[in-house]
Amino acid sequence: xxxxxxxxxxxxxxxxxxxxxxxxxxxxxxxxxxxxxxxxxxxxxxxxxxxxxxxxxxxxxxxxxxxxxxxxxxxxxxxxxxxxxxxxxxxxxxxxxxxxxxxxxxxxxxxxxxxxxxxxxxxxxxxxxxxxxxxxxxxxxxxxxxxxxxxxxxxxxxxxxxxxxxxxxxxxxxxxxxxxxxxxxxxxxxxxxxxxxxxxxxxxxxxxxxxxxxxxxxxxxxxxxxxxxxxxxxxxxxxxxxxxxxxxxxxxxxxxxxxxxxxxxxxxxxxxxxxxxxxxxxxxxxxxxxxxxxxxxxxxxxxxxxxxxxxxxxxxxxxxxxxxxxxxxxxxxxxxxxxxxxxxxxxxxxxxxxxxxxxxxxxxxxxxxxxxxxxxxxxxxxxxxxxxxxxxxxxxxxxxxxxxxxxxxxxxxxxxx
Length: 417
Known about the structure:
The structure is a single chain. Helix content is 7%, strand content 53%. With 417 residues, it is mostly beta strands. The protein has one domain: Beta Barrel (Porin), CATH 2.40.160.40. A hairpin with a 4-residue loop joins strand 17 (292-302) and strand 18 (307-314). This is DUF3570 domain-containing protein. Keywords: Signal. InterPro entries: DUF3570.
């Protein structure tokens, strides 16, 4: 009897100990390391280059590969590395040094060194999820560099899910600290009449550009077929917000030409602060096993006088268990900035002026078509890496000011076995 009682007591004590010390199973946030490889080719053309005062070639090509590696540190934490480069050639940027080539002409690319460059970027982020997966917070550091600027960024984000994960609220904050190298149009760098540098006569306030942003989001599952979300983004910028090598031509100054090239009267000048507000909304609706409807709208305004509207629609079409086709359309229009002037219309008595057509009034249309291949079982493998998905997309953009571009992008996602 005593032996039976002792055995029962030991067994009962062990069961209690086991409950206290053996952890219950919880699903990992990320099961295994994932690698995304993305590359895009971009080509544009137009006749309103800001480098040459709103008149001149905007021809540009860009090749941009990037890689994202997401590494699970444990069941709750993920570390992500995102690195990319952008190699571009720009006919308009080459005309910063317009007289380095055989012909000086705003519609002909110069052979100046500024006609091509390499932009490099790296983002390192960390995220942590709570045990119940209802709370996620993260932080990131980013760094990027190009021939005329260097940028260092910091960010943090927080997401909270409740109502049985049917409702989600989120917040993110970012700070970017940019440092410019001031590069002026070739003919303005030295004032022959005063025998002094342009910068000594026309000093810019500083070479820094600091950006501070706050984003708030709300998402709600409305039914088994529909989901909606709202977003609010606030951005404050301070410092050198103009581009020093953008020329401006004044209507109250005589036009001076060398060959076919008009010498700049001044550089672009803009306020040293800018406040932006954007309010957006999404509505996604599952129609049936074949069709899904994704819609988006955003209203934007800033204290430079620009108001804009963006609306887009995408309709993924599931062709089979592995292939999805997704046509898309995006509409955009905006009012002109208070400081925008067309070519040769600004006055020298104005405090601020730019002929950058990105700040002009325009309407744009973008059409896209993409296809995705998905294999959740990763049957195709390279060593210990399984191919999970392939994306390929083509976009065509046209702006009523004359700018056009096309973009081809592709992506591969691999998971580690």
